[in-house]
Design a protein that fits this description.
- The structure is a single chain.
- By secondary structure, the protein is α/β, with parallel strands linked by helices.
- It has a single domain (6-173), classed as Aconitase, domain 4, CATH 3.20.19.
- It is built from eight helices and seven strands; from the N terminus they run βααβαβαβαβββααα.
- Strands 4-3-2-1-5-6-7 form a seven-stranded mixed sheet.
- A hairpin with a 5-residue loop joins strand 6 and strand 7 (157-159).
- It starts with 5 loop residues before the first strand and ends in a 9-residue tail after the last helix.
């Protein structure tokens, strides 16, 4: 996955409490491969498109919100099923950060494994920022994972927390598989030594 260190970008407000993963990625799209060039259309598909495929007035269809890389959400963002495709859809659309008062636990974990940074800040801060974004579309935020800080459009700074292990993984652009691959030499050495210690475990049988 792509490393995350610092991002300065425009944000969009998502005023939906208890936003579930089925809204982010409707069930009918769960098996579409990530290689599909139109994968970004999956995100909020029911809200962004009419039955004939034409665009609605949903906020992510409007300029300048449609070019946002940051979302500012409400309580319990990403609740519901565990589908990782909800995160894939966000990343395909170009979202790199979601700021919200709380997240669905599995969704939060899926975000961190795909280079999408979930930032937890107080409800009143998120509400104020969403209101500001409605008033002044195109406002930018700076999110600094190294410094664990978000700078708002009025240059106000808010510190957030993230588990140190997750933070280091995201800074390096590594998921669990990537971390394991970094230990490949040690794993290979262990396997070779294990074969010597217990050759009978590796002998051919009829």
């Amino acid at each position: 996955m792509e490393p995350f260190k610092k991002l300065r970008a425009a944000a969009a407000p998502i005023d939906i409490t208890n936003l579930d993963t089925n809204q982010l990625c409707p069930t009918r799209f769960n098996k579409i491969p990530l290689t599909n060039p139109d994968y970004q259309r999956i995100l909020f598909n029911n809200q962004r498109y009419q039955s004939d495929g034409t665009l609605t007035d949903f906020i992510l269809n409007r300029p300048p919100y449609r070019d946002s890389q940051i979302l500012v959400g409400d309580e319990n963002f990403g609740c519901g099923s565990s589908r990782e495709s909800a995160v894939y859809a966000l990343v395909a659309f170009g979202i790199r950060v979601i700021i919200a008062p709380s997240f669905g636990d599995i969704f939060f974990s899926n975000c961190t494994k795909n280079g999408l940074l979930p930032v937890i800040l107080a409800s009143d801060i998120c509400a104020a920022w969403r209101a500001a974004l409605h008033t002044e579309p195109g406002l930018q935020f700076e999110v600094d994972l190294e410094g664990l800080c978000v700078t708002g459009p009025a240059q106000e700074k808010h510190v957030f927390s993230l588990h140190p292990t997750i933070r280091e993984r995201m800074l390096a652009g590594l998921d669990e598989v990537g971390i394991t691959r970094e230990l490949n030499d040690q794993i290979t050495a262990f396997e070779e030594a294990h074969k010597i210690r217990m050759p009978w475990a590796f002998s051919a049988t009829d």
